[in-house]
Amino acid sequence: NQLIEITQELNNSSNISIERHSQSFINEISVISSKKPTFNKWKQNAITVADGNGHGQELNQLSVPFGIFIDRKKYIFIADFNNHRIIEWKYNAKKGQIIAGGNGKGNRMDQLNLPTNVIIDRQNHSIIIADYGNRRVVQWLNQTQQILAENIDCWGLAMDKNGFLYVSDYKKNEVRRWKMGEYNNEGIVVAGGNGKGNQLNQLNSPGFIFVDDDQSVYVSDRDNYRVMKWRKDTKEGKIVAGGNGEGRSLNQLFYPQGVVVDDLGQIYVADGENYRVMRWCEGKEEGEIVVGGNGSGNQSDQLNGPMGLSFDDEGNLYVADLWNNRIE
């Protein structure tokens, strides 16, 4: 399937050039609206908030954005994967602006190579990027670049309330944490790190991650079709979504991607190949569909390969809808 194809390309990142019959993957950004993330009912039709205008490199275009981050102003920060850049799309804007990369694919300090995720450090307003193809995590601050971690197959990024940085390593099957300002070491393993596998102390191709106020780490354990929660200083995780093999039932996930958690501890996960976003309450055997679930398609109530997820401060949910060339 399509997601397996892109994963195979990622595992050979030195020769990546993503195409699909000359069609773009992500061309627009839209938002599914709800007054608060704790509401049981969500509006099922997306509102477009950033139109990509077709596959390309112009400022009103995107090419395969993976991760997204929404700040307090509702500005959208996009890891524009195949354009090797980070785009900032301001609220109600018709086009974005390049704030990192955009100088072609490469390993110079002013270049990126297939960025998968981006977050903003609220302390100093710097941009932190998972520069997957260069196997490094980089920080951009006022156009000055610094490598925070290297020799890491970085995919997911998160930062907790204390400024600790968390990075998932897609190939080492682990998540590491670094203390703010202390990036000259290897960090410490906070999830996985026991080889590839499906035991509670293992991960299999971890992707997106989320960290809550208790410093619990939620990991989208992609090839185990589950989301894991690792409490601080524990030796194994707990399955909080999926974990019943690949499938389309409400107790299953099929290549989970983005994961976010609301103030009530409800877990939202982009169920990639099931074309839906699921919400799971911890301890429940099944999740519920909150967005999509109407088959793959490009209608406003459909998804086709949801990827990154993010909330804004008002509780609007943003979804990277990969194969529909949009983020909803």
TrEMBL record:
InterPro entries reported for this sequence: 6-blade_b-propeller_TolB-like, NHL_repeat
Superkingdom of this protein's organism: Eukaryota
Annotated Gene Ontology cellular component terms: extracellular region
Repeat positions for NHL: 247-277
Keywords on record: Glycoprotein, Repeat, Signal
Protein name (record): Uncharacterized protein
Record lineage: Eukaryota, Metazoa, Spiralia, Gnathifera, Rotifera
